[in-house]
Design goal:
alpha/beta, globular, binds D-malate, single chain, Rossmann fold
């Protein structure tokens, strides 16, 4: 892994392959290791995969912008500055899973000219309901008080399809370890930021770059029906429904997700 200093913090990232940059942005409360299978499948002479740990996640420290709240906007600004630091001036394909997708919407809003394509994976354009936002703030307080254990119990069962939980104990364990190792302050700051994220539904019609929408058929957090509506609202977007997968489709069925991604990349 490499690191670069961006907006007062070190951003650690994986970087493999050459040519077309594809940025993979992880979900909450995870880090770039959730993309391991996709990095192996996609990085090569024509595709440069860059997978950062967002500030406060994985190896990237919180930094100096304050640790009370990280908005999706701030994360998008970090990523634009990180691309500058990497001297990547050509447009990138931005792929975000769940919280990574919330960040993708902000990146698209602010840095549309830097996008060659967009991959929205198991995410949603809507904001939290007032109850959902309140629950996130409670989660933030709880994680700061008690550490990551309550988050593991609360989130882990929702992240994976039932069949994955039954048949792939090693995947469950991998996610458990990633969440357990998370930085409570980073998790709390991102939870507060997500609680404030804007509803982007009305902006979907303004997305102009080629877009692929990916959803696990058993995603309990961003259900297929919602993702079909999201894809229908983006002009020309393609939709890939991934069998035998829940919210963590790229980990649960990497063959199908990398196949859909490869086809998308070849067509843009
Ligand atoms: C994620 O995977 O990033 C989370 O499920 C996002 C969320 O809690 O809304």
């Amino acid at each position: 892994m490499n690191s670069l200093t961006v907006h007062g913090t070190e951003i650690w990232y994986a970087d493999r392959g050459t040519e077309q940059p594809v940025v993979l942005v992880h979900g909450f409360p995870l880090d770039h290791t959730m993309w391991a299978e996709l990095i192996d499948a996609l990085a090569g002479p024509a595709t440069r995969i860059l997978a950062p740990d967002l500030r406060g996640f994985g190896r990237s420290p919180l930094g100096t912008i304050g640790d009370a709240k990280f908005t999706m906007d701030q994360f998008a600004d970090d990523l634009a500055a990180w691309l500058d630091a990497l001297a990547i001036r050509e447009p990138v394909v931005f792929c975000g899973l769940s919280m990574g997708g919330y960040i993708a919407f902000q990146f698209c809003r602010k840095y549309a000219a830097r996008l060659r394509g967009l991959i929205l994976c198991d995410t949603k354009a809507t904001a939290d309901t007032p109850e959902g936002a309140a629950a996130r703030r409670d989660t933030a307080e709880r994680v700061l008080r008690e550490g990551t254990a309550p988050l593991i119990e609360g989130m882990l069962p929702k992240l994976l399809a039932e069949s994955t939980v039954r048949q792939r104990p090693e995947l469950v364990e991998r996610l458990r370890r990633t969440i357990a190792a998370g930085n409570p302050q980073g998790i709390a700051a991102a939870a507060r930021g997500m609680a404030e994220r804007p509803d982007m539904t009305a902006a979907l019609g303004q997305i102009r770059c080629p877009t692929l929408v990916v959803v696990g058929q058993h995603d309990a957090i961003s259900p297929p029906a919602e993702m079909r509506r999201l894809a229908a609202a983006i002009s020309g977007a393609k939709l890939a429904e991934i069998p035998a997968a829940g919210h963590m489709a790229p980990m649960e069925n990497p063959v199908a997700v990398s196949g859909a991604t490869r086809e998308f990349l070849a067509g843009i």
